[in-house]
Structures are given as C-alpha cells and as structure tokens.
Amino acid sequence: MNASTGGVAVYIDSLCPPEGIWIAGAGRAASDDGQLEVRDPATGRLVTRIADAGIPEAVAAVDAAAGALPQWGAATPPRVRSEVLRRAFELMMEERNLLAALIARENGKATADAQAEIAYAADFFRWFAEEAVRSEGAYGESPAGGTRTIVTHRPVGVAALVTPWNFPAAMATRKIAPALAAGCTVVLKPAAETPLTALAIARLLSRAGVPDGVVNVLPTSAPADVVSTWLEDPRVRKLSFTGSTGVGRVLLRQAADRVVNTSMELGGNAPFVVMDDADVDAAVQGALVAKFRNGGQACTAANRFYVHASVAERFVGRFVDEVAGLRVGPPEVEGNQIGPLITRRAVDDIRALVDSAVGAGARLAFEQQLDPGLTGYYFPPTVLTDVPDDADILQREIFGPVVTVVTWSDEEQVLAWVNGSEYGLAAYVYSGDLKRALRFSEALDAGMVGVNRGAVSDPAAPFGGMKQSGLGREGAREGMREFQEAQYFSVDWA
Ligand code: NAD
Q1: Within 13 Å of residue 94, how many CA atoms lie on the same side as its CB?
Q2: Phi-psi domain of 95 (left: phi exceeds 0; alpha: psi -120 through 50; beta: other)
Q3: Is the distance from the beta carbon of residue 447 to the nearest atom of ligand 1 less than 6 Å?
Q4: Rounded to 5 degrees, what are φ and ψ at 369?
Q5: Given ligand 1 and candidates 166, 220, 262, 456, which is best to mutate, with the most ligand atoms within 8 Å of its CB?
Q6: Fewest beta carbons within 10 Å, which of 154, 259, 314, 341?
Q7: Which residues are designated catalytic?
Q8: From the CA of 433, how far away is ligand 1's center (Å)?
Q9: Any idea which residues are catalytic in this one (predicted)?
C-alpha cells in the first residue's frame, strides 16, 4: 500500500493488509500490477494506492472461498462460528476510533457518523454470533400420514457480496456476518471509492479466528468484470448486492443466466409524513436524523417531507433554524456534522436537481453559505418548500443534504403521493395518535416505517425494501435465511 498523506499512513498500515487484494488470508498485488487510487472527498487529495483486482484475482478468490467451504460450512460447529463472530464484534469495538478515522478519510462522513457506523456495523457480528447457534428446523407427520417430514437449513455455498461506498463498514458486515453464521464463505467487492474499510474488516476477521479463504476482498476499478466472472462461475451460489436500483437490475439479469440466488438492497426515496396532530418539535428532531445522517447519503434518507398544512409553517420555521445551525466541514474537525459528498459529480447532480425544482416552482427557503475555504466536494444544507407534487426531485433519490417540503390537507391524497414512487424502502410517520399513525403506516408501500422516529436501522430487525427498492431482507433471522437453503427429507414411516 502506498499511502501519500502523512499521518494517515500509520492507521492504514495498522488496519489494512499491505497490498490491497485479500485472498486466502493474505494480501496480494494484482497480476497486472494495476493500482486503484483512493481519494479523500474532503480535499480531493490522494489517500493511497492499492492493488486493483481483475479477472485472474476474481477467479483466485472463488478458488479460495470454494476451498474453504467444506471446513467452514459443514465441519465447523455453529458454536465455534458464533464465538469467532463474537470475537470480531469485540475487536471491532476495540478498534472503533481507528476504523472510524479510516471511514471518515475515504468516505468523508463526519467522525460522529463514522463512529456510529462502526458501532452499528459491529453489532451485526454480535447479533449473528447469537443467531448462529439457533439452528431451526422442523419435524412432523405429513397430513396424509405414513411419512415423517424433517426440514433443515444448510448454507447456500460461496456467496458473492457487492457493497456501496455510503456505509463502507456496515454494508459489509450486514452481509458477512449472516453469511459466516450460516456457514457460507464469501468473496466481497467493495465500492472502488471506499475499499480500505472492507480490507480492514477482512484483516480483523482473520485476527478474530476466521480461517483463511472464508472471507476474500477484491477492490477493483472494473466491477463489471469481477462480478460477471463470479456470476458465471458455477461454484458461486449466491449474490447479495447493495447499491443503486439501476445496477441491481443489470445484476439480476446476469444472475438469471444461472438462476443464482439473489438478495437486492437497492435505492430509496423515503417520505417523511407529519400529521396535523404531531409533536412538531419531536418531528423536527426526527427529521434532522432522517435527512442529515451521513450528509443525506443514505438509502433510508428522508427525501420528501409531506407536512400537514396546519403545522407546516411551524415545522418549516423550526426545521430551517436547525438546518442553519448544522456544521459543515472536514470530518476530523470536532463538532462538524456534515462532511463532503463522495464525488464532484454528486455535487453537480444535486445542484442540477435543485435548480430544476426551483425552475418548476419550488421556493428556496434556505441554503447555507459554506466556508469558501472548503476545497472538497461539499454541498450546502438546503431547504426547498412549495415543491410541486410532480417535480422530478420528488421522484429521484437525492442522496445529499437537501430537504423538499410539500404541504397537504387530505390524508388520502398524501397516501397516494407517498405510494406513487417506484421505490419502497423506508418511510417516516409522525402523529400524536399511535393508532392513526400505525393505520397509515400499514398502507404504505415501504419495507420499514419509523413511527415517531427518524431512524429505522437495527440488526435485530429485517432491513429491506418493497417494489424497486429490492428483494430480500438483511439483519434479523430473515437476514440469515438469505444465506441458507431449506432442505427437507421425506421419511417412510410405514
Ligand atoms: P452503485 O450501484 O453505483 O454501486 C454499488 C456497487 O456496485 C459498487 O460496489 C459498485 O462498484 C458496483 N457496481 C457498479 N456497477 C457495476 C456493474 N456493472 N457490475 C457489477 N458491480 C457494479 O451504488 P453506489 O453509488 O455505490 O451506492 C449508492 C446507492 O446504493 C444508492 O442508490 C443507495 O440507495 C443504495 N443503497 C441501498 C441500501 C439498501 O440497503 N437498500 C444501502 C445503502 C445504499
């Protein structure tokens, strides 16, 4: 690894394998010596160069994972897998500060967000350490009699995992932990923007006792080559993908050729509904979390705020006051709450989206003046009100610190607007009447609903979306099932 920014080298070297590609428990260079540049979004400067995997490494990673499968899957008792995962949780929490610094450096998120991500990410190891030993099955008499049915669940096999840059640790552990608990081995392709955190996790898992070959990590600038190599390989039996709906569709089509088992965690366009009887102060606090965690770069981020006309003025006034106080700047500066976006292109895309909304009649109620000395990919926290209900910005995933407010007075109308999206991941509902909030929530096309809460993620709950937000669930018992196949035995009992 070729770290260029002084002090950063120290923690990169202490956390990550020296080369970059992690196969069979060791770092290695690319066979063509290709290198991938990792940049700091807060400055645009080079952080380090690491090995850039290609097709030969993709094949070698599957060789390693397939080689390790019989020992890890069938020959290692669940209790042993559980203890290794528990140790991974503990190690991750011990290394929390260093890992958070690594995330902040390659992703740009504020240090507090990075630390919260590490705690959340580590919790998947703890949760699935506990699930690993709860092997459930069934035994019963068939309805017609004369046979006994035994149902068991076995690991699906070698799993290919593909993760995005916005939660470089949590998106990796949310897949690795259930896969390992179930007895699968994995090949992981992190996003090219944020490969260092995934490499650090692979090394940490090795220290926790995960045998060589069980977890393999391939940073690459050629994701399509690496992932299609995996999808064409008959030894790969599972694809678990988190990323945009567009790339998810491409991978679903590729997976269809071999009918590969797939789980898809895709894009979102979360509505945040404030009813007339809501506690407005609580709704504003929830809105801050739902919108600005990770600078708005979350699949669960509230994109569209539907506020009842009778409380709209109060809600917007208080929300704007809070947004005006958000501190934007380099992640390592204590107290900063919002870092840069991931790339310059993201800044340009969101600017175009805001301009088009204003062109369509939205009112720019607030835009923070950023410190002109900031050199990275920053976008100012922005609030748009009076957004026409058919504006493009309400249909697209914004993925940045921009609030759009639409007012309403007819509950049926707002329900139709909310469900009028192709996405169905998260939603938020605020009301003083829990029964009313739940009735409304049950009618939403959303896999997850925060009721009087601005956050929904929890390792113990099934995370995932409806409609074009995905297939399958992560976390909870459901998350482990994604890496298992049911098998039953019909036993003659005559
Ligand atoms: P992306 O789809 O561009 O990339 C995701 C991953 O896919 C990356 O590792 C990327 O390298 C890889 N990839 C890109 N093109 C590929 C191809 N042709 N073949 C194989 N792999 C390819 O998404 P992103 O910009 O990294 O992440 C943001 C998106 O992820 C947003 O849409 C967000 O909503 C979504 N997301 C969803 C969840 C969820 O749980 N539902 C969580 C986090 C992020």
Answers
A1: 11
A2: alpha
A3: no
A4: -85, 115
A5: 166
A6: 259
A7: 265
A8: 37
A9: 265
**Other C-beta atoms within 10 Å of 94: how many?**
12
Pocket of ligand 1 contains residue 337 by CB under 6 Å: no
Show me where the domains of the chain are located. Answer: 13-266+469-489, 270-459
Instruction: Give the pLDDT confidence score for residue 7 in this predicted structure.
Output: 52
List the CATH code of the domain at 13-266+469-489: 3.40.605.10
pLDDT tens for 360-413 read 999 999 999 999 999 999 999 999 999 998 899 999 999 999 999 999 999 999
Q: What is the DSSP track for 377-443?
A: S----EEEES--TT-HHHHS---SSEEEEEEES-HHHHHHHHHTSSEESEEEEE-S-HHHHHHHHHT
The pTM score is 0.97
Q: Is 117 in the pocket of ligand 1 (CB under 6 A)?
A: no
Q: Counting atoms of ligand 1 from 1, which one is nearest the CA of 425?
A: 41
**What's the CATH number of domain 270-459, 3.40.50.1980, 3.30.470.20, 3.40.50.300, 3.40.309.10?**
3.40.309.10
